[in-house]
Design goal:
heterotrimer; A alpha/beta (470); B alpha/beta (275); C alpha/beta (222); B: 275 residues; alpha/beta; Rossmann fold; 2 domains; four-stranded parallel beta sheet; 8 strands; globular; C: 222 residues; four-stranded mixed beta sheet
Chain lengths: 470, 275, 222
């Protein structure tokens, strides 16, 4: 995916003027967040589960090498293969190699954000293998040559009409705007793909070290068909997904669906362990796990380590007022919202992604709803520190901070500055109480009035009163 | 006294239950410059609750602009200055969850082996947002105020999520005569102020504050009340720009029965009447 | 070598060399113990409570529940359901408990035992457990019960014995381990209601890729 994060401001401006997107986002906030709140009301242990999940993830990271090696040995014991990939390129090559080994022409794909991260579809296509996205949202996007704007509801930015046009164009069937009919149409078209694909690629929500299993969580059942029907199943996933046991996985599953869509449990939670057994009548003959690093191992021990706890539930973006205003595409890369604002700078560089951790009011809602209690605002601030240290902070901002700091560190002249500013603005406002325009404050007064100061500063008035002996 | 000498003096003024505690008022820049009446109302409430209030001269800003811009060195400089300014006070109280919240971040600014770390922790332990202080620390119940009208309350982010200010303002407001509180939808959603955010990303901030003013006006309230001037200036400015007939006030003005001053962004009453 | 680099980075970040035997043993012992963490109170009920909760949660997830007093009623119950929906065929798992039944009530409805194929309208399988906590069925792949039966047909009919209803996921994992002491089955499915998606215009629709209908025949304890 082409990196558009440096244009965040422009992307956001366009998004704010996109009437249909704004409608979709307006509707969106009454979906997942409301369902989540209701689901939590029904589970009094929810906050205890979050504490437990945070601690368990921390334990996993402290022992990450051990659990990964254990997972690997179990996969091999079950007759599967593990491919360790430091970079996206390594992972793409590993997957293409597997496809070539089995002479694959088409691969079906379940939803995988890691595959978006490494541009897997483009790579496969360029090398003669046709990937077919099977998650309904991802399928729609693939037909439109579009990208996900949300990590679990990828086509959230599109409305029924958009889908109707797209299906009409590609399926060559009579146009319908009935969502049920549209879904049935996709079901029929994709069924052929499921059955004929040579390879099925899925992501993984968790990897279980105890058993060498991978699990996917879906509502549609597409991932299940993807990993059952073709002769080869490839799991593409990242190193922080490993958990020790099935019981540990259950802890995260209890949090995942509720934090994501607000369901009690996702419809299908499917565990895959190795290739099919000798007597099994169906299931893949080959099982591969492609373990992608792509910068994650460097986060261990860094100020961003907490981010490795993320279970990709999307709760942070579902509740983020900035995401709610500009949608996922504005962020300009794979992962939007607060979790993306922490991950993206690590993966594409803070120089390109500097806007993301800055475009936050630090309101803290994301941290409040995170099932594994990642201090997202703090991590975003760490990126601002990195940016400042590297002198990437825009000159005007640096100058502003430096000038303000000069005064703020000198109480006596700070008084003088406050007094002057209060006098200046209140004089400009006269008796109106507010200003429609204020020099150098266009960012404010373009959109809202500037309430005027009352007049003399508190410090001056207080001193005068003290002197007068009040 | 130089800062290094001050450092050697143990300053562990932990909260106690003694009567007439000595409180250092953290004025906050916005109250100082834009709305002194908020600081005076805070003083009035603190004194009514039996506190002895002083206003340390050496205080300026809490340092949030530097902290949020990633400038650690400047943040530490300002933190040290603020810690010194409030040495010796049993409590530090201010009319802003955001600025008091920043004081609570000071310990993160210093490394564990830095002697300032302990002083920062000490300051954190005695710093309170005003409604929190009145409710949770001095258990102040004698609100002697009346307010004619229906209000709606905006929960500012730092106060709410960092300091746990949620029930305290509502409890205090419930003691104000004739006042009716109509909760708005999404009272806990950020108004889009965010310090420098509102000028760095003005159109996103505008979308957020527009959502907010819609909820405020849907609540049917005639007055918006909040505990942070930054948020209030933002929302009041938007309400005025939209021509909505809704006033905005800081909660302490209502609790201290000091609502004879014009509301935020309003003209003098005489002038308003004349127009 | 990606593997060495990744593991090396992790260890560097953790500030240590390769894990000591002690660290490794501790982690492996944790795996071997596979202790449960927090199990919500609501799934810790007596049998009657578990059965009620399963029914409530499964219905809440849009599964259709049909009660059976004895196993022998299954063929006619399946037949009635298929006829109601005008289905002419059924593809079935080949568990002994199903094969022992008299399937003559199906009449002209064709019953086949094979893996599922595109176009199959209805399948019948058994289930290892019902998990009360969320009304979830647990099934796993076996020669008698291929996984395609659970996903390809339009309708999935499942037999669940009341006695197989457990409280929590953890209870179910222990059953999987008991039934498969050597190795996990290739596929373990946890199924909670029929397939669905809200990817088109944020409107929730049933039947995306998996079964559009999930029917659970609940067999009362004898």
């Amino acid at each position: 995916m082409q990196i558009k994060s440096p244009n965040f401001k422009e992307n956001a401006r366009i998004a704010l003027h996109n009437v249909e997107l704004q409608e979709a986002l307006g509707q969106f906030k009454y979906g997942f967040p409301v369902n989540r709140a209701n689901a939590i009301k029904r589970l009094p242990e929810f906050d205890d589960l979050r504490d437990e999940a945070r601690d368990l993830k921390n334990h996993i990271i402290e022992n990450l090498d051990i659990y990964l090696e254990q997972f690997e040995s179990k996969v091999i014991e079950n007759g599967g293969h593990v491919h360790w990939c430091r970079t996206g390129d390594d992972a793409n090559k590993a997957i293409l190699d597997i496809c070539k080994q089995v002479n694959a022409k088409t691969v079906t794909k379940g939803k995988s954000m890691v595959s978006e991260e490494i541009n897997l579809n483009d790579y496969l296509e360029k090398n003669g293998v046709q990937p077919v996205e099977t998650d309904l949202g991802e399928y729609i996007l693939q037909l439109r040559d579009d990208h996900p704007s949300h990590i679990i509801a990828p086509a959230i930015h599109l409305n029924v009409n958009d889908v109707s046009e797209t299906f009409h164009k590609h399926h060559k069937r009579p146009k319908t705007e009935d969502p049920q009919a549209l879904m049935k149409e996709a079901r029929e078209v994709l069924r052929k793909q499921f059955v004929s694909a040579d390879v099925g690629i899925t992501g993984a929500n968790f990897l279980v070290a105890e058993t060498g299993s991978s699990i996917i969580v879906t509502n549609e059942g597409n991932g299940d068909l993807t990993q059952t029907l073709p002769k080869t199943h490839i799991v593409i996933t990242s190193i922080e997904k490993v958990v020790p046991t099935l019981e540990d996985m259950s802890l995260f599953l209890r949090l995942l669906a509720r934090s994501a869509t607000g369901q009690e449990f996702t419809v299908y939670n499917t565990l895959s362990t190795g290739p099919k057994r000798e007597d099994d009548q169906d299931g893949p003959e080959n099982f591969h796990v492609v373990l992608v690093d792509n910068g994650r191992s460097e986060m261990v021990g860094s100020e961003f380590q907490d981010m490795l706890r993320c279970i990709r539930c999307s709760s942070c973006m579902n509740h983020c007022p900035v995401y709610g205003a500009v949608g996922g595409h504005s962020y300009g890369w794979v992962y939007p919202g607060p979790m993306g604002s922490v991950l993206t700078p690590k993966m594409i560089g803070i120089d390109k992604a500097a806007h993301l951790p800055n475009a936050s009011t630090s309101c803290g809602k994301c941290e409040e709803v995170c099932p594994v209690r990642i201090p997202l605002p703090k991590l975003m601030r760490h990126w601002r520190e990195k940016e400042f240290e590297k002198h990437l902070t825009p000159k005007a901002v640096r100058f502003g901070i430096a000038s303000w700091a000069f005064f703020a560190k000198r109480p006596a002249i700070y008084r003088w500055l406050s007094r002057g500013s209060a006098w200046f603005i209140s004089t400009l406002a006269g008796k109106k109480g507010r200003l429609k325009k204020l020099p150098l404050a266009g960012g404010w007064t373009d959109w809202r009035d500037m309430p005027a100061p009352q007049g003399k500063t508190f410090m001056d008035q207080w001193k005068a009163k003290q002197k007068a002996g009040e | 006294m130089t800062s290094s000498r001050r450092l050697t003096i143990a300053m562990t003024t932990m909260p106690n239950n003694r009567k007439n505690p000595k409180v250092g008022l953290f004025v906050t820049c916005l109250a100082d410059m834009f709305r002194p009446s908020v600081a005076f109302a805070t003083v009035k409430l603190l004194e009514a609750s039996g506190c002895v209030v002083e206003v340390p001269e050496k205080q300026t800003c809490c340092g949030q602009p530097a902290y949020n811009s990633g400038d650690k060195a400047t943040t530490a400089d300002i933190a040290r200055q603020t810690i010194e300014a409030f040495d010796g006070y049993e409590y530090v109280v201010g009319p802003s969850g955001s600025c008091i919240g920043m004081l609570h971040y000071y310990p993160e600014v210093f490394s564990d082996d830095d002697p300032w770390k302990q002083r920062a922790l000490d300051l954190k332990a005695r710093s309170y947002e005003i409604t929190q202080f009145l409710t949770d620390i001095v258990n102040f119940e004698q609100i002697n105020a009346a307010f004619e009208g229906t209000i709606t309350y905006h929960d500012s982010c730092s106060g709410l999520r960092q300091l746990g200010v949620k029930d305290q303002p509502r409890k205090l407001l419930s003691k104000v005569e004739n006042l009716t509180l109509n909760e708005m939808e999404e009272a806990e959603t950020c108004c889009g102020f965010g310090g420098t955010f509102c000028v760095k990303y003005p159109d996103i901030s505008n979308r957020m504050v527009s959502n907010k003013t819609q909820y405020i006006s849907d609540s049917g309230a005639s007055t918006l009340v909040g505990g942070d001037l930054g948020c209030l200036l933002n929302m009041a400015g938007k309400l005025k720009r939209e021509g909505k007939q809704i006033e905005a006030r800081h909660i302490v003005e209502i609790l201290a029965d000091m609502t004879d001053t014009p509301a935020i962004g309003e003209a003098e009453y005489e002038l308003a009447k004349a127009l | 070598m990606s593997r060495a680099e990744i593991l090396g980075n992790i260890r560097q970040g953790l500030g240590r060399q390769e894990a000591t035997a002690e660290q490794r043993d501790k982690a492996l012992a944790r795996i071997a113990a596979h202790k449960a963490t927090i199990i919500p109170k609501r799934s810790q009920l007596d049998r009657k409570g578990q059965i009620e909760l399963f029914r409530e949660m499964a219905s809440g997830a849009a599964a259709e529940l049909i009660d059976l007093n004895e196993l022998a009623e299954l063929p006619s119950a399946v037949s009635t359901w298929l006829k109601q929906h005008d289905f002419k065929s059924l593809v079935s798992a080949s568990d002994a408990c199903l094969n022992e039944l008299d399937w003559s009530p199906l009449g002209d409805i064709q019953r086949e035992q094979r893996i599922a194929q595109s176009g199959d309208v209805a399948s019948l399988t058994t289930s290892m457990a019902g998990i009360a906590e969320t009304g979830t069925l647990m099934l796993y792949s076996r020669p008698e019960s291929p996984t395609t039966l659970n996903f390809l047909p339009d309708c999935h009919l499942v037999l669940l014995k009341e006695s197989d209803i457990v409280g929590s996921y953890e209870d179910a994992w222990n059953l999987v381990r008991q039934n498969n002491p050597k190795q996990m089955p290739r596929t373990v499915n946890m199924i909670t209601g029929p397939s669905r998606s809200a990817d088109i215009g944020q409107k929730l629709q049933m039947g995306a890729h998996g079964p559009c209908v999930l029917v659970i025949f609940i067999l009362k304890d004898g």
